[in-house]
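Teaching assistant's notes for section 4

Start the section by putting this record on the projector. Ask students to predict, before seeing the second block, whether NifU family protein will look compact or extended. Collect guesses on the board.
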Amino acid sequence: MARPDRPQGSADDAQWRTAGDRIQTLLDSCATGGPGAYERAQELVREVIALYGAGLERILAHADPQLAERLATDDLVASLLLVHGLHPHDVHRRVADALDRVRPYLGSHGGDVDLLEITPDGAARLAFRGTCKTCPSSAMTLELAVEDAVRAAAPEICSIEVVAATEPTNVIAAESLLSRVHSSGSWQPVPELAELAPGEVAGFSIAGVSVLACRVDERALAYRDHCPVCLDTLAGARLTGSSLQCPRCTTQFDVVQAGAGPSAAHLEPLPLLTRDGVLSVALPVLGAPA
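Reveal the predicted structure now:
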C-alpha cells in the first residue's frame, strides 16, 4: 500500500532537535532563585505541555484519517504526538517505517536490516544482512544510522538487540555491539550538501573534520577526506560514474559500495541522512579509535 509523501521540512526544523536541552537549561537556571522558583518553573512547563497535549488531542479527534497520517509522518509533529501518547501508529509500525527510511542508505553500503520483533519489555530485535564485513567503519556507520532512526521513531524502545543473520541464536546486547557508536559520533546538519550536482565532488570542513562529499545520480554520499592507500587528502578527486579516483596515487574507490577499493583498502564512509528535512552527517569524535 502506498504511503503519503513525507512533508518537507526546512533548515530551521533542526533547532527543535535541541529544544529539550534548551528547556532543561532554562529550568536549571531557575534553580539559582531557590527551590521555590525551580518548582514553580517546573510546574509552568508541565501546565504548558498539558495544555498543548489537550489541544493536539482535540485536533486529532476532528482530523480525517488522511490528515492524521500526514501529521504522523512529520518529524516535529510526530515527536509531540509521542510525548502525549497520541501517535496513531503502534511501536512496531513506527520502527518498521524508520527502518524503511534508512534502507536506501544501508543498500548503498551493501547492507540491509530486518525487524524481527519488538519484545514485551521494549527491546527491538534486528538482524543486519549483507554489510561490508571487511569494513569495520562501514558496519559502525550502518549501526549508527539504524539506532538513530529507531530511537527517534520509538523513544519507548529501551534496548536494541542485534541477531547475526547467519546465527539466529547469537544475540548481542546493544550496549556491547553499539558501545563504539554511542561514544564515536554526532550528527551535524549540512544543508549545503543538497546543492551538489550529479557527478560533483566537494570538500567540506564540518566541526573540525575534513569531509569529502559527492553525488551519484540522486544519491548524496559522504566520506572522510583520507586516502587509505597514499594516506593523503582526496582534494581534487574526480568522479566517473560511481568510481572516485585519488588525484595522487590514482587508486579508484567505488563510492556506491561503501568506498571499496583494491584488496582491503576502502574509504571511511560517514552516514548522510535527511533529518527533519535537512541533510545531516554523523561525524566521529576527534581522537576516537578508527
